[in-house]
């Protein structure tokens, strides 16, 4: 086995899944995160079947299914509330798993942290990687507390804003997608299943509005819109209500549920795709540090956890680490490129409704269909 002692930098989906999968293969793992404590705040996520397949393999699927809300189809609405279509969602994790679940991000994060701790992963919070040095058969880290340590491998799982990425010789940087998104968690009625509504025309600034149940009585709402907030003097919750005001049917209930106390957040959506190598010597970047997409087919976290499991499998086989990292990267690139291309195409069509030949349903279906095969 090429690696026995690994430092993981970043404790999101990527870093925690890599930590679990390595520890299950008898690797000693230390994980650092710059957050001083794990925060319980956060939004809902759609977790697709291919991510659930990874969660099955790392032994957390029962806990994940227990906190999530299964969804196997999506309702498309016209803005006035009429149903446009009911679309079955491809079962990207195979027929034994739900097509998707909706869940609160902190619930999933807690499950992964608990599993990592059970497996003996040492988690140190409030620490950043300041610098590293490749030293032949090892890599040496310097952390923000001034300590230096030696590892067989350092994994950069810092997310899209990774500061270590350029130090690996990676020239690509995150870029604007042209989209912004509001997200909120609010109550739902029992009969609501996941849905997306499209405006008749771009009159209020929302490209589309959607919701996904995350448990028996809550859902998360998103409003896809322009990347800049209009200067209209409205507070966040008032702006979300304004953006939703032309959407009816189930969206009337959701809009009315939003109050000044609703936890919500606005962000500009960025993307990155690093097509060149993801490693330099004994330091490798995974997950959103090297690929992040607008969440239009909800594959972000799924691609991250696929990376992490496959990576752990490669580097714990017999052989030379350089060959293993190169083979791992070569295997991931075509699959991730399919997700990136589809997501960017969909982002373009969101911003340019009425584009001749636009066919989001076909692009989405083909992109997800391609993921049913094992990664
Ligand atoms: C609006 C939006 C909606 C989304 N919706 C979905 C969805 O429905 N389904 C889905 O599958 N995906 C979705 N995604 C994508 C998903 O959230 C990401 O793919 C996933 O969270 C990325 O995980 P990560 O671990 O690579 O990075 P992150 O979650 O960003 O984690 C990085 C971690 O590294 C830490 N860190 C960073 N730098 C350092 C450092 N120098 N030292 C130490 N620690 C550091 C950070 O504190 C953080 O904990 C969405 C993304 C966005 C923006």
TrEMBL record:
Gene3D superfamilies: D-Amino Acid Oxidase, subunit A, domain 2, FAD/NAD(P)-binding domain. Signal peptide: none annotated. Residues 5-342 form the FAD-binding domain. SUPFAM superfamilies: FAD/NAD(P)-binding domain (SSF51905). It comes from the Bacteria. This is FAD-dependent oxidoreductase. The keyword Ribonucleoprotein does not apply. Keywords: Monooxygenase, Oxidoreductase. The keyword rRNA processing does not apply. PANTHER family: MONOOXYGENASE, PUTATIVE (AFU_ORTHOLOGUE AFUA_6G14510)-RELATED. Pfam families: FAD_binding_3. InterPro entries: FAD-bd, FAD-dep_Monooxygenase_BioMet, FAD/NAD-bd_sf.
């Amino acid at each position: 086995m090429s690696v026995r002692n690994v430092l993981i930098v970043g404790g999101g989906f990527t870093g925690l899944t890599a930590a679990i999968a390595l520890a299950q293969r008898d690797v000693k793992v230390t994980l650092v995160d710059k957050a001083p404590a794990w925060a319980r705040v956060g939004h809902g996520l759609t977790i697709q079947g291919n991510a659930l397949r990874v969660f099955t393999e790392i032994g957390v699927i029962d806990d994940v299914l227990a906190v999530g809300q299964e969804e196997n189809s999506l309702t498309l609405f016209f803005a006035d509330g009429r149903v446009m279509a009911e679309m079955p969602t491809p079962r990207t994790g195979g027929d034994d798993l739900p097509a998707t679940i909706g869940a609160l991000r902190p619930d999933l994060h807690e499950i992964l942290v608990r599993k990592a701790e059970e497996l003996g992963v040492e988690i140190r919070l409030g620490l950043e990687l300041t610098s590293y040095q490749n030293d032949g058969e090892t890599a040496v880290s310097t952390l923000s507390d001034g300590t230096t340590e030696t590892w067989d491998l350092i994994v950069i799982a810092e997310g899209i804003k990774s500061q270590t990425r350029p130090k690996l010789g990676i020239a690509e940087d995150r870029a604007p997608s042209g989209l912004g998104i509001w997200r909120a968690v609010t109550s739902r009625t029992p009969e609501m299943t996941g849905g997306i509504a499209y405006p008749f025309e771009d009159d209020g600034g929302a490209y589309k509005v959607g919701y996904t149940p995350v448990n028996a009585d809550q859902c998360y709402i998103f409003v896809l819109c322009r990347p800049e907030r209009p200067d209209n003097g409205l507070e966040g919750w008032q702006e979300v209500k304004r953006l939703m005001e032309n959407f009816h049917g189930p969206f009337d209930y959701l809009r009315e549920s939003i109050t000044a106390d609703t936890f919500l957040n606005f962000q500009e959506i960025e993307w990155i795709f690093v097509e060149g190598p993801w490693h330099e010597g004994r330091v490798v970047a995974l997950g959103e540090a090297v690929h992040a997409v607008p969440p239009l087919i909800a594959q972000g976290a799924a691609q991250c956890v696929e990376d992490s499991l496959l990576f752990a499998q490669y580097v714990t086989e017999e052989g030379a680490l350089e060959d293993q990292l190169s083979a791992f990267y070569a295997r991931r690139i075509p699959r991730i490129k399919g997700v990136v291309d589809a997501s960017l195409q969909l982002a373009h069509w969101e911003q340019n409704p009425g584009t001749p030949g636009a066919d989001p349903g076909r692009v989405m279906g083909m992109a997800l269909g391609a993921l049913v095969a094992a990664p």
